[in-house]
Every structure is written in structure tokens, then in C-alpha cells.
Amino acid sequence: NAGVTQTPKFRVLKTGQSMTLLCAQDMNHEYMYWYRQDPGMGLRLIHYSVGEGTTAKGEVPDGYNVSRLKKQNFLLGLESAAPSQTSVYFCASSSKTSGSSDTQYFGPGTRLTVL
Amino acid sequence: AQRVTQPEKLLSVFKGAPVELKCNYSYSGSPELFWYVQYSRQRLQLLLRHISRESIKGFTADLNKGETSFHLKKPFAQEEDSAMYYCALGWWGSQGNLIFGKGTKLSVKP
User: Fold this and answer.
1) pLDDT in the model for residue A98
2) Cα→Cα distances B29→B46, B71, B91, B98, Å
């Protein structure tokens, strides 16, 4: 099993360009998440999904959109990239639980630089 | 609102010394607490969670509801323990969401 994979690993964008980050998991997890990791800020949740076809906003959703058309994939889009979106992006997934939290499994990260 | 505080950004110890990474949380209900570790240029991975009551790589953490703390401890630090450590809080009804602290970078010197 590959676990959680992310594409691409690195990307450099110019301000105003758009891109999509792809996250895929082969663990049949219901829940998926997108985080950004910035120095001194820890991990902050951008958007999450509790199942195919559903998405919800996290702590820092502005400037991002997501889609979960297939259970195994969770896409993060930047419509018009800004330098403030320079960050490392992590995807994670977890099992559906009875109401509490389960272990999240993380992808390797995507390092994005916006010039 | 739920919150996780890791007061130390950087903790530096010598090999063989005891180490304690502090984590305090704010939540009025029954929390679920986790420690995640991120080694250099690697993905985050679960180190331990309080409901498992395990010792992983010599690390332990005890949930203290009175002090709302979940400190991570190891009696004898090793150089390979150098990494970024994140404390995370989950709760009933969170839909799997976790609130992460800002992390503590542990540096173990030879």
C-alpha cells in the first residue's frame, strides 16, 4: 500500500497563476484533510472532507477550493496564487469514527513557492 | 474554543539527558490527544495517542485532565530523536478534525 500520496512534490508559481494539488489515498478512508505548514505556525487546516462529494472549510480556507469527486482523491486548487500561499501543503486521511478522532495519516507534502 | 499550546519552540538537550516536551490544551469535554513527529524532510507520523497508553521509541505521555496537559517524556534522549514534535487535540463531534499545536523542535546534541 502506498498510503497517502501527493502530486506534485515541488512547484513554483508566479503570482496570479493557478494550480491543483492532488492527494490520493489507498486506505479506503472516509475523511481527508488539507493543511498548510508554515514556520512558527504549525499545521493549519485549510479544508476537509468527510466523504465523497462533501467538503467543508477549515481554519484558513480563503484563496483555496477543494473537490472530492472520488473517495480516494482530494484535490486542492489555487485559482489565483499569491505570495502568502508560499508554504508546504500536507494532505492527510483518517477512518470514519463514531464521533471522535482517529489517527491521521499524512502524505509527503508539496512545497509550493509563489513568486 | 479548542486550543493546543506548546510553549517551547525549541528544546535542546544532550544525548542521554531526560526530555520533556510540554503540551497544554483547552477543551471542556473529554479530549483525545496525540503526539505526531516529523523527522527532517519526512512526513508527519503518529508517535502515540493517549488512549493507547503505549510507549513508542521510549516516549510516553500521560493525560492530566486536572492540569489539561499531555506532556511527552523520554528518560534518555537519543540523537535520532531530533525532530519536530506536534501535539494535537481531537474531540467528540470533530468529524476527525484535529487541532495542532505550533510544534516544538527537539535537538539532541551528541
Assistant:
1) 66
2) 23, 19, 8, 15
CA distance B21 to A21: 33
Do B4 and B87 meet the contact criterion of CB atoms below 8 Å apart?
Answer: yes
Count of Cβ atoms closer than 10 Å to residue A107 Cβ: 27
Partners of residue A56 in chain B, C-beta under 8 Å: 95
- pLDDT at residue B84 greater than cutoff 90: yes
CB pairs under 8 A between A and B: 64
Contact B96 A103 (CB under 8 A): no
Cα Rg of chain B, angstroms: 13
Contact B97 A109 (CB under 8 A): no
Tell me if B73 sits within 8 A of B59, measured CB to CB.
yes
pLDDT confidence tier of residue A101, bands split at 50, 70 and 90: confident
Of residues B49 and A107, the one with the higher pLDDT is: A107
